[in-house]
Amino acid sequence: MVKLRLKRCGRKQRVVYRIVAIDVRSRREGKDLQKVGFYDPIKNQTYLNVPAILYFLEKGAQPTGTVQDILKKVGVFKELHTNQTKFN
Fold it and tell me: Where this protein primarily resides, as one coarse class (predicted)?
């Protein structure tokens, strides 16, 4: 199973996170399938590759709690819902 979760990067006291699609059995810094975003909690900046995120969500990937909150704030789930109703 694939999850969308945060991968810690940066240095001490200056943490930044990559949002990655990764296998559930991999550890936090393990090999990811694809990098789909970036989150900096200090500057409160977010960059998301929305088409890639939608692709993984449509294939059944589960976001973690924190990633789900980030995606809700941006409105990715609204796009996912409109894409699903478009094809059904």
Answer: plastid
Query: In one letter, which amino acid is 84?
Result: Q
Nearest to 37 by CA among 80, 79, 66, 1: 66
Domain boundaries, the chain: 2-87
Q: Has this prediction a pTM greater than 0.85?
A: no
pLDDT (tens digit per residue) in 22-40: 998 887 778 889 999 999 9
Contact between residue 18 and residue 37 where contact means Cβ atoms under 8 Å apart: yes
Per the CB < 8 A criterion, the answer to whether 65 and 6 are in contact is: no
88: tokens are: 């059904």
Across the strands, what pairs with 21?
4, 34
Tell me the average pLDDT across 45-59: 92
